[in-house]
Amino acid sequence: MHGITNSAQRIIFKKYGADVVFSEMVSAMGLNYNNQKTIAKTKYSPKEKPIIIQVFGNTIDETIKAALFAQAIGADGIDFNCGCPARSMIASGHGGRLLLEPDKLIDILFTIKKNINLPLSLKTRIGYDQILPPSFYKKIVTQSHIDCLIIHGRTVKQKYQGQANWDQVKQISQSLSVPVIGSGDIVDPFQAVKHIKKYTPAGIMIGRGALGNPWIFQQSRAILSGIKIRPRFNIKKIIKIILEHSRLMIKQTGQEQLAIIQMRKHYGWYIKNFPQAKSYRQQLFQAASLKQVKKILTQL
């Protein structure tokens, strides 16, 4: 997730049970122009492995170079984004816009796959402005030779409105020979396990549902193993994770105040279900140091 799943967040996700983590979307053009902010998005800690570098682009030359760059820095796989619904991405011909140009998409994926020695996945949606049939995705997978399809149960035009259509995701999954990973609206471990068993047995991807709730991965794995869990962590454990996440962010940025500012949205997600969450959130949004954060958290 852009601006969210940086190295600090990914380390937290891995520690609390995620099998695989993905980088933020990395611009192929940015890498080609040696943009330092873009390159920074590809940096990771050994604690995050296996890690997939997620790239976006709309030309073959740029995306090949970006994929080779990701391979050279030790990524465990490449994910090509063809699902982002952001207005700027669509306007520039990136992300979900490529669903309207399937032949171009196939050419890009086929050429990337031919030039790398890593697994290649495609992250996309069930359609652009209307639901596309499973045969559409079968053609892409068959002709591009990608290794995995990751599909979100909304159209690009829907963005994040309405409910994810998991029945359509299941139909696509059952029609393909490669693993299909489902995504959309998974916010608790019981739901996660249900979706794996019912819709996409190859696995699921959890994004927004893990924000302020990183233990969802650990809990989902426990349920799959037949272990009973408590749906929620206690306050002391959550505070411990918040401070751990904050320290990782400080280490990543090298600037305490900047790190705390970047953590503010995360504080909101972590404490959203606490009593008097609004009041504490307002205080945390004004904090500028780890010391101040700690002082506020001791009042929870």
Q: Your description of this structure?
A:
The protein is α/β, with parallel strands linked by helices and 300 residues long. It folds into two domains: 7-224, Aldolase class I (TIM Barrel), CATH 3.20.20; 235-297. The protein contains 14 helices and seven strands. A seven-stranded parallel β-sheet has the order 1-2-3-4-5-6-7. The mean pLDDT is 96.
Helix content: 40-55%
Describe the strand arrangement of the main beta sheet, using strand numbers: 1-2-3-4-5-6-7
The general outline is globular
As a percent range, the share of strand residues is 5-15%
Sequence-ordered SSE layout with sheet pairings:
Blueprint: H1 7-15, E1 21-27, H2 28-32, H3 36-40, E2 51-56, H4 60-72, E3 77-82, H5 87-91, H6 102-115, E4 120-125, H7 134-144, E5 148-152, H8 166-175, E6 180-183, H9 189-198, E7 204-205, H10 216-224, H11 235-253, H12 256-270, H13 277-284, H14 290-297
Parallel strand pairs: 1-2, 2-3, 3-4, 4-5, 5-6, 6-7
Helix pairs in contact: 1-11, 4-6, 6-7, 7-8, 9-10, 11-12, 11-14
Short description:
By secondary structure, the protein is α/β, with parallel strands linked by helices. The chain is built from 14 helices and seven strands. The relative contact order is 0.09.
Structure keywords:
300 residues, 2 domains, 14 helices, 12% strand, TIM Barrel, alpha/beta, seven-stranded parallel β-sheet
